[in-house]
Specification:
The structure holds two protein chains of two kinds. By secondary structure, chain A is of the alpha/beta class. Chain A contains seven helices and ten strands. Chain B is of the alpha+beta class. Classes of the chains: A alpha/beta, B alpha+beta.
Amino acid sequence: MSSIVSLKRVAKRYQRGKQTVEVLHSLDLEIEAGDFVALMGPSGSGKTTLLNLIGGLDRPSEGEVSVGGQRIDRLSGSALARFRARHIGFVFQFYNLMPMLSAQANVELPLLLTSLSAGKRHQHALTALQIVGLAERAKHKPAELSGGQAQRVAIARALVADPTLLVCDEPTGDLDRKTADEILGLLQLLNREHGKTIIMVTHDPKAAEYAKHILHMDKGTLAPQAVA
Amino acid sequence: MKYLPLLWASLWRKKLRTLFTALSIIIAFLLFGMLQGVNNAFNRTIELSNVNRLIVISKIALTESLPFSYTQQIESLPGVARVCYQSWFGSYYQDPKNFVFAFPVDPERMFEVYSEFKLPPEQLEAFKHTRSGAVVGADLAREYGWKIGDRVPLHSTIWTRKADGQSDWSFDIVGIYTVPSDRSQENQFFFQHEYFDEARAFARGTVGWFAVLIKDPNQAAAIGAAIDKLFANSQNETKAQTEKEFQMGFLKQIGDIQFIVTRILIAVFVALLFATGSTMTQSVRERIPELAVLKTLGFSDTRVLLLVLAEAVLLCLLSAAAGLALATALFPKLKNMLQVVELPAEVVFAGLGMALLLALAIGLPPAWRAMRLNIVDALAGR
């Protein structure tokens, strides 16, 4: 299989006051298409920073980042926005849904950046909600949904534009065990049945068990470890 | 258009706050419409002044009467085509709030000097030959449901009748005039000076002012000077001026309307700018994580800037349109004071232009901030 994500000698440094802090040190990583990778490690190990670089939310201080065969570390701000719209679906720990919009309108948001008609956008959003098993809640606002339901809507939003990659930052961090298992089962289904490549940051070893591979990070470096 | 539901939902995220902000804009633009409308009406009065007419008043004050005998003397001057005279009757119909702009006139002279006032010939004939006859503007007739043949009582706040000492006067409507070039003039009430002069208890043989039709507008200054010279050192010295100068002077007596209106509106809009500006800034600040999510989904920096700006434009334009619509509905109520019929369209367009400027002023700073938002920092709550 070919690599869908490729990082070469990537370093990321932040300026904190007068001090320069290196969060990632000359990191190399290859993730194949169709993989489901869990990224684990202690707080401050650089997991989210790595996820931000892969998702095109941030740029490396050094090195190359390629996603879907495209170098994204040199893209302009607007080109990077177009890249995110086309290739990346994000799922956050706290769902990050728009509170004033219905579930369906939230899912439709990424489609506003496409040339689809209003009818097609509604149809696609409804399909995405059906995939996550929440079609009957389409008209409900986030405040009227449980945590698990809100996260399903967030996953539907991440899926709706058919991205190359799903990037999940602690997607079950705010959920109880049972709901977390349901969400992880859904991600596993999307990976197995729909062929979605998923990279998931988690602290939870049980959540990581749903992935095909687990990568451990510590102090800005990676140590790969295969899962059965 | 596809962003409209998103904009609308964002706008009403905090309903009460948006409602109060919208109300403050509505009230500001209602005020703008009314004040600017008044200003516009005054300016229009000056603009529509006839260049062929001079107004001759007492040198002492507008309220001082002049001898009726001046009519012939002025008319005998070279360059003068015709002279008519009027007096301020100061009256109302049935209720003091129903103020009526009524003037005793010479029928023939009046409609010659004010040729833009159109009265059918048979009605003019009836006016000339009916001592208690009156002609009224079409708008005034419409307002009170008057028609030819009606007997109308007016109560004067100045003039009493010699016969009974009463201030109630009765007139028979014999004509209805129109002014196609300026509908706002169709709210006046003219009646026979001769009837008035004979019946009034005091000041007989006098008139309020003269309107002088001249043959050549280029000679206005010279003819005006000749009129004043004619009555110099008499008991009743005159002040002749063009109709435009007269209107400007008259309005100046009320005050410098433009100056007052401008200062009031500046104060209102500066207050509005601070109030709505801080609300808009606060609203965007509260939504920083949401704006960061939009960027995460692929909305570019420019698109986020335009979304925030469009929200301000939507709020300001809709609220201003509501305020101006309210002003348009209420403005005709000022008819009795201003002789204006409706809020001029240019005031509405100027208001909408102001609303757009206001939207840019209050929307641009938070929109700029939203555009420069760093996604990673915003999502991390930094």
